Amino acid sequence: MKLNRLRVLAASALMTGFLALQPGASAQAADAPKLLGKFDDWAAYTYGSGNDRICYVLSEPKTMLPKGATRGDVYFMVTHRPGRGIKNEISMRVGYVFGATSKPFATIDKDRYQMFSGVPQGGEHQFWAWLENTREEAKMVKSLRAGSTMVIKGTSARKTLTTDTYSLKGTSAALDRIDTACR
Length: 183
Prior knowledge:
Blueprint (H helix, E strand, L loop, with lengths): L2 H18 L13 E6 L2 E6 L6 E6 L3 E3 L9 E7 L4 E8 L11 E4 L2 E7 L10 E4 L5 H10 L2 E7 L5 E7 L3 H11 L2
Antiparallel strand pairs: 1-2, 2-3, 3-5, 4-11, 5-6, 6-9, 7-8, 7-10, 8-9, 10-11
């Protein structure tokens, strides 16, 4: 896994989104993501301090289809932002710009979770998707803990349907770690 590189990219994306919502805020240049632990196919990190503290888990897909499709970094995250009262924010980066009409979704066992892309916001957001119904975040996290595999499908701006399969081995331990670190 390229988790070391991904943790920096993920933290950068998280802080960019966070800072965009904070007038007058500045990034803490000296602060870097801190690995809390690797748990099988998942890793847990923390970033920042005080009200700006963020904790997150992330994983990369075990398989990505179609094989050979040109893509950038691909990963799935669950994030806590205790200073903002946010727990279990679900997001994923797919390594391509989503199509304007793409309706990405995740399945874990028989449960399906509808997501939405950041295409309307433009920029880096076009590579990301979030859980459409935030009231389902706790349910999805429960599914992540209980399941063995998650499949995510989306369509690129070039109309390529992608299917990413994630192992959920280690998810519970990683989530437990950020639950403790970001109460």
